Structure formats: structure tokens, C-alpha cells
Amino acid sequence: MSVSAIPTLASQHDHEGAPRTTSSATPSATKALQILEAFLGAGPKLGVSEIARTAGLPKSTAFRLLRHLEQSGYVERTGRHYVLGRRLFELGNAVQICRPQGIRETAMPHLAELYVATGKTVHLAILEGTDIVILEKIAGRGGIQTDTYVGGRAPAACSALGKAILSFSDRNHIAAVLESGLVRRTRHSHGDPAKFLSELRRANSERIAFDREEAQLGIVCAAVPIMMEGRAIAAVSVSGSAAGFNAASITRHLRRAAAAISDEVVSSAA
User: Fold this and answer.
1) What is the pLDDT of residues 58-73, one digit of tens each?
2) Helix, strand or coil, per DSSP, at residue 52
């Protein structure tokens, strides 16, 4: 879908992630999930006090639920701290996109070929809300390393992956990004909605999006959408040092990989 007529003022829409409540009426299952979500972006090891504060729960409640989660293998204790348990790794890899015939497995051989051809960091990501979620990463050889990881999130607006997907998304997705505010992670990140929309139009026309040190200083990234029935369901990217980024060569390899993944996804869905 073309983005040429996207409104500059975002329409009203519902948001996920309502404010947490510490009410005693909150189900225990919800509280347990809030504890697990406290680990997102907060570091691998957390103490009870930090978990309780991040989850918005009384310390006694957090301690009680952590004990149950530990017994079930969803968290593990290391001294006075807790880490996410290996049981969650099993569950995470049972998600449909990670199972056999899911997009992650389908894309993996092509991501490997892309890595061999470029020697740079390769990512596969999907759009979730106003963020991208990294499904797979192959770290490049030498140079500056990207601060991304599998399962990690990043604002879609300042990433090539996000812009590649958004350029083939409907107005509601783009409006949500604009309404939430264009996150500026570096001095190169876009803060002007008009310029951002112009870049999406260009990405839609050329079927490739770029991040020129917008997500991380010193890192340039190019991304191409993975298409299915005229919409972008994911994107694949190549990232590397701004000093040694051959955009023409990388674009050629990226387009070949994205087209191959798209063909396989469409074939498996038929």
C-alpha cells in the first residue's frame, strides 16, 4: 500500500499496555507476568526490590510469586538476584514464528548467505506496535558491534527495519508511530514527521530503507521488506560501520535475500 496520502495528524486509536495496577483485585497470573516483564530492558539480573518496583507490586507479593516462578523453572536465583529461567527459552522457541516452517526457520539459510556475502551484521525483524522485534541476528566480523539481540525491541521509526516494514503498512500503523512520538536515539534520528513520511514514501518506491546512524552512532543499516500479498510481514537488514558501508553492493545482496525469503513464505502458505 502506498503511503503517499498518509495524514500528518495521527487518528485516535487504542493503545496496548494500560498502566499497571497494584490493586489486590489484579489476578495472580497477571502479577506473575508483570514480574517476568520487569526483566525486559532492565538487565539479566535483578534483585527483589528492583523487580517489585518495576512491576509495580509490593515487595512481599513479588517475593512470593518469584518463589513460585522459581519452582516452575521460569526464573532462577543466583545469590541475591534472579534471572529468567531456561523454561522461558523453551516457551519462546515454541512461538509459531520460531517453529518449523515459521518465518525464522525459512529465512535462516538466506540470512546465512547474506552474512557470508557481506561479512556484516544481519537481522530479521517484525513490527509489533510501534517497535520492531528482532527474530534473528548474525553478528558481523570485526568493526563496531550493534547493540541488538534476539528478542530485543527498538523504536521502528529510527531503524531501517522498522521503516522498511512501515513503508508497506496501513495508515493506522504509521499513525500510531507518529502519535507515540518519533523517538530520537541519536542526533541523526528523525524528529520531523513530514521528513519521516517522506522517507517512508521513498522506501515504498525503492523497496529499501536506510538508517544512517539513527539508531546507533557509527552504524549504518539498510533493510528490505519481506512481502506477502502486497504487505510487509517482516524485514531483513545488513548493518555495519558507516566508514565501510558499500550501499550499492549491500542493496543488491539484500534484495536477493528478501525476494528468496518472500517466495518461500508465499509457497509454504499456499
Assistant:
1) 999 999 999 999 999 9
2) helix
